[in-house]
């Protein structure tokens, strides 16, 4: 299956309508999705027949895969009825896509897969400029089979690779991809279970939600060994477990599609800007059991956005942190990636948020990540903060991840780098890489404790790391200047 995808990407690179990994991933995605949908409908039709029930197809006959994409005769493509060239493009652009886009407004149930199809295609268009190229791709994908669970698993792996390639393409596409080893570690620590609600306020490609699904659904994902779940549990897992927001159209499309291709037909993903929601007056029923996130950081939010939060700040990461704190249920658990600046900054807004976090939540663990985890998108040093809404913080377990080599785009973080942490954090074992800080020893809400087990070493940063750090420091300086300006304006008014 992977060789077929590689062949398709090579074909697409030659098409005039395609430019870079972002485009070919987007185009492969919608074609793969429609083939997956066709196989899904085939399976549901057979199941209904075996149960003596009728099955109502999602798509009208004209728009089904075996009619427009791969009409068959004697088990082979019917060359006479299989459109190609300009005729194929005419149908896809002027009939198929408008039909699929209409689903969002037609369907009454936002949880239905029909509604999700409409939500996906609302922000998609065919970019393939050559109809003969499209025909060639359709023929290749038609030979892929997604009927079985093992086939779906292979598809999900391939799709994850496509998203990773899309992220590696650079530019703004870094928003699509968080390293999967890091996602797995965060999910394992938070440990979502069946019956709990799981939320990501900046879902991107839905990596956290998919890992949470795998964590709940499988004993062993790679061996496709599933947990025994009741019909009601499976329904809850599919319809009422996963929630998230994403403001970027293409990220939203990729995220929803990624969830469906992984077997989650009804994810509750909203295309919206999380920070536009006023967090005041939120009821417990609207909160979540688990929050998993790597939200954007380094942005500057306008006053209108800041007004939605009790503690105003133009720092995007600080607003997201407040949002997550406010959306966690009593007893709920959160794991969130934040830039290191959030830990050590002690100006008014940062100190106030961290004061509330320490006093109203239990920060039980801070995982210090090495530089380069998010290359090539960012070289900013980051940490993962784990906290529960279960009383106040008494002491914090720190763990510093130290890979045996400097992380680069071609030498990324891997799961083995977290092995000791996963073995140590629950029992709070002290190692060369871990230590505990009592809350009484924290001064001015500075949470950036240094490893006491190691001698101070001179770290030679790469040019890109230096530039990223300068940009982050400049942003922090601007925040401080804004606060000083506000104080001075206030005094002049008085």
List the defining traits of the structure above.
494 residues; alpha/beta; Ferritin; Rossmann fold; nine-stranded mixed beta sheet; two-stranded antiparallel ribbon; elongated
What is the strand and helix layout of this fold?
Elements: H1 2-13, H2 20-50, H3 65-68, E1 72-73, E2 76-77, H4 85-101, H5 103-106, H6 113-121, H7 131-142, H8 149-168, H9 180-190, E3 198-200, H10 207-217, E4 218-220, E5 225-226, H11 231-239, E6 242-245, H12 249-261, E7 268-270, E8 288-293, H13 303-306, H14 316-326, E9 328-339, H15 340-344, H16 348-360, E10 362-368, E11 382-388, E12 395-400, H17 419-424, E13 434-438, H18 463-493
Helix pairs in contact: 1-2, 1-7, 2-8, 2-12, 4-7, 6-12, 9-10, 14-16
Overview of this structure, please?
There is one protein chain. The longest helix is centred in the N-terminal third of the chain and has 31 residues. 45% of the residues lie in helices and 13% in strands. The protein is elongated, with a radius of gyration of 24 Å. The strands form 3 sheets. Strands 7-6-3-8-9-11-10-12-13 form a 9-stranded mixed β-sheet, sandwiched between helices. About 1% of the residues have low confidence. It is an alpha/beta fold and 494 residues long. Helix 1 packs across helix 2, helix 2 runs parallel beside helix 12 and helix 4 crosses helix 7. It folds into 2 domains: 146 residues, N6 adenine-specific DNA methyltransferase, N-terminal domain (Ferritin, Up-down Bundle), CATH 1.20.1260.30; 301 residues, Rossmann fold (3-Layer(aba) Sandwich), CATH 3.40.50. Strand 6, helix 12 and strand 7 form a beta-alpha-beta unit.
């Amino acid at each position: 299956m992977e060789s077929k995808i590689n062949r398709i990407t090579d074909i697409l690179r030659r098409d005039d309508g395609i430019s870079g990994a972002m485009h070919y991933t987007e185009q492969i995605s919608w074609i793969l999705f429609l083939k997956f949908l066709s196989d899904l409908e085939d399976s549901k039709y057979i199941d209904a027949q075996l149960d003596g029930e009728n099955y109502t197809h999602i798509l009208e006959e004209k728009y089904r895969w075996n009619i427009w994409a791969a009409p068959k005769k004697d088990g082979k493509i019917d060359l006479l009825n299989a459109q190609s060239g300009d005729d194929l493009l005419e149908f896809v652009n002027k009939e198929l896509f408008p039909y699929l886009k209409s689903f969002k407004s037609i369907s009454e149930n936002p949880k239905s897969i029909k509604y999700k199809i409409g939500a996906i295609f609302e922000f998609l268009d065919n970019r393939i400029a050559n109809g003969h190229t499209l025909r060639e791709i359709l023929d290749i994908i038609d030979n892929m089979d997604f009927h079985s669970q093992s086939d779906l698993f292979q598809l999900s792996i391939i799709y994850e690779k496509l998203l990773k390639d899309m992220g590696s393409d650079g530019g703004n596409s870094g928003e699509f991809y968080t390293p999967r080893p890091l996602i797995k570690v965060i999910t394992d620590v938070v440990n979502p279970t069946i019956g709990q609600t799981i939320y990501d306020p900046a879902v991107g490609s839905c990596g956290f939600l998919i890992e949470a699904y795998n964590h709940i659904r499988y004993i062993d994902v790679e061996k496709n060994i599933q947990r025994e779940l009741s019909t009601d549990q499976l329904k809850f897992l599919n319809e009422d477990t996963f929630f998230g927001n994403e403001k970027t159209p293409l990220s939203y499309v990729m995220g929803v599609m990624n969830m469906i291709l992984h077997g989650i037909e009804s994810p509750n993903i909203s295309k919206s800007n999380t920070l536009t929601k006023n967090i005041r007056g939120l009821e417990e029923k609207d909160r979540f059991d688990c929050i998993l996130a790597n939200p954007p950081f380094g942005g500057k939010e306008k006053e209108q956005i800041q007004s939605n939060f009790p503690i105003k700040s133009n720092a995007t990461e600080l607003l997201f942190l407040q949002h997550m704190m406010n959306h966690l249920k009593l007893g709920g658990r959160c794991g969130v990636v934040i830039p290191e600046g959030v830990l050590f900054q002690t100006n008014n807004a940062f100190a106030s948020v961290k004061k509330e976090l320490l006093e109203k939540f239990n920060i039980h663990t801070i995982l210090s990540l090495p530089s380069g985890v998010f290359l090539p998108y960012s070289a900013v040093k980051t940490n993962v903060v784990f906290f529960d809404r279960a009383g106040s913080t008494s002491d914090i377990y720190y763990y510093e991840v130290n890979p045996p080599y400097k992380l680069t785009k071609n030498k990324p973080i891997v799961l083995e780098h977290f092995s000791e942490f996963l073995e140590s954090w629950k029992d709070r074992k002290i190692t060369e890489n871990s230590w505990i800080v009592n809350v009484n020893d924290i001064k001015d809400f500075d949470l950036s404790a240094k490893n006491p087990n190691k001698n101070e070493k001179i770290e030679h940063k790469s040019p890109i790391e230096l530039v990223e750090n300068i940009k982050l420091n400049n942003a922090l300086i601007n925040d401080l200047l804004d606060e000083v300006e506000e104080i001075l304006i206030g005094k002049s008014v008085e």
